[in-house]
Amino acid sequence: MIEGIAASNGVAIAKAYELVTPDLTYEKRSINDPSEEIKRLENALATAKDELEKIREHTRQTMGEEHAEIFSAHLLILDDPEMITPIKDKITNEQVDAETALDETTNSFVEIFKNMDNAYMRERAADIQDVTKRVMAHLLEVTFPDPALIDEEVIVIASDLTPSDTAQLNRKFVQGFATDVGGRTSHSAIMSRSLEIPAVVGTKEVTGAVKQGDIVIVDGMAGNVIVNPTDEEIDTYKKKQADFERQQEEWAKLKNESTLTADNQQVDLAANIGTPEEADNVLEHGGEGVGLYRTEFLYMGKNQLPTEEEQYEAYKDVLEKMGDKPVVVRTLDIGGDKELSYLDLPEEMNPFLGFRAIRFCLENQSIFRTQLRALLRASSYGHLRIMFPMIATLEEFRDAKAILLEEEQNLKDEGQTVADDIEVGIMVEIPSTAVIAKQFAKEVDFFSIGTNDMIQYTMAADRMNERVSYLYQPYHPAILNLLSNVIDAAHAEGKWVGMCGEMAGDATAIPALLGLGLDEFSMSPTSILPARTQIRGLSKETMTSYKDNLLSMGTAEEVIEFIKDKTE
Ligand SMILES: C=C(OP(=O)(O)O)C(=O)O
Ligand SMILES: [Mg+2]
């Protein structure tokens, strides 16, 4: 049994599918028979084309035309004589092997494209690199894994899964996944919860311990992975799986109830989503709104920026689905573990502390303005709230809001309708903002606390790094004091406070958050009904009476003990 971090509830039992990037190193060779090498190259190109066509078709069916386009771009490269002829010429003229000719030729194209003063051409560089890897794998006769092509029930085993790998996983076949690295709040873990795929992350060793085809059990509740289980173990976990399903049926009975505490105080339970389709999940799980729509996923899994029209359609779709329930849309929060290869931003030493989110948007105003226009145009189709991510200073908020107001005016001048009740708020995820929440509260309409980042910045413990995960402590008194400061500051100005970090759905944290006065809890859709069940059993008045005790404790352990003791 391998222990890791429980990332997404449920139990899965299936064959292992190893998702590993193959070793693509090769030795440069001189050759005698260029025609033989050219034949090898042509075969590799043909296999790559075949695969790309299948992937394109699969993506078109599962994710739509727009996402399939990237593969059409890849296919064009493989058919482009300006790319392929120089590779063949190099084999013939320099008498080198196909691997060397492919690598050196494509590298020189990548270098040229990367340095062009044109975003479109820079995007082509990333495409060339992607297809080259696939062709190279076929030349070297190593397997190139394609998560999108999985067509039998498996558990995906990987060192790490990027958010875009995770987005490609097909829920019908992928029963669960387990990774070496990552934490509960890394974005692949968050996505596994929205896809409702049981997952264990941060095991440090699962890729070493599991071979392709081994039978694997993933227990996403306990955070365990069992490799090649005995029949007895399989029976035990099948029972656990059935218990979990029964429990879900119990929770489902509260789907249409409002969220009231035992002493009749109301709180709002909203959900976090990454795609418009997930809005259906929110309603299915009884969500009272969307507390965080992470729009960056609209920008991922493709090879260029989404247009204003594409964004408008996506926002309108979510707003219409949610009807009069509020939808908090967060503007682009790119950076950290969410990369956009086509923007070709320079690598940074500390991406989580780097050029990301609102910092990027204020410097790339045309990208930001396009998003704001799409949002404003969609605003009349539902109940929209706009939220800026990673706000560290008041100036950032003022600048972002000024741009929003300018775009609103521009649209009105063009004769477009814009809703007149859009609240504008910020994520509180940087300690500087939490500390001076009082000053911010005078200017914003609401706060949503992003504990995923706030904890990593307060504790100086990378949320993705399993080696420091022991320091990533949601219940640390420093965190509780920051939360309390933000909530009190907002309430003093008559503003509401939500939380859209993963802590909002955490059963140990919920009693404390209720006591600190949090108004809105936004979580993975699947956490809503268990949270509602729990909150109906808690008295807000009693929890509030524990506030001073909680804030004056010395360690996270003491906080956990105290909460357990008071809620058992
Ligand atoms: C909700 C948050 O944003 P993200 O997880 O997307 O960084 C957060 O930081 O808590
Ligand atoms: Mg964040």
UniProtKB/TrEMBL annotation:
Chain ranges of the PEP-utilising enzyme C-terminal domain: 249-537
Phosphotransferase system enzyme I N-terminal domain segment(s): 3-124
Any Pfam family matching the protein: PEP-utilisers_N
SUPFAM superfamilies: Enzyme I of the PEP:sugar phosphotransferase system HPr-binding (sub)domain, Phosphoenolpyruvate/pyruvate domain, Phosphohistidine domain
Keyword terms of this UniProt record: Coiled coil, Cytoplasm, Kinase, Magnesium, Metal-binding, Phosphotransferase system, Sugar transport, Transferase, Transport
Coiled coil regions in record: 31-61
Domain of life: Bacteria
Domain PEP-utilising enzyme mobile intervals: 151-223
An MF annotation (GO) of this entry: phosphoenolpyruvate-protein phosphotransferase activity
Cofactor: Mg(2+)
Main enzyme class: transferase
Main location: cytoplasm
Location in or out of the cell: Cytoplasm
Annotated catalysed reactions: L-histidyl-[protein] + phosphoenolpyruvate = N(pros)-phospho-L-histidyl-[protein] + pyruvate
UniProt-listed Enzyme Commission number(s): 2.7.3.9
Role of this protein: General (non sugar-specific) component of the phosphoenolpyruvate-dependent sugar phosphotransferase system (sugar PTS). This major carbohydrate active-transport system catalyzes the phosphorylation of incoming sugar substrates concomitantly with their translocation across the cell membrane. Enzyme I transfers the phosphoryl group from phosphoenolpyruvate (PEP) to the phosphoryl carrier protein (HPr).
Family: Belongs to the PEP-utilizing enzyme family.
Protein name per UniProt: Phosphoenolpyruvate-protein phosphotransferase
Gene of this entry: ptsP
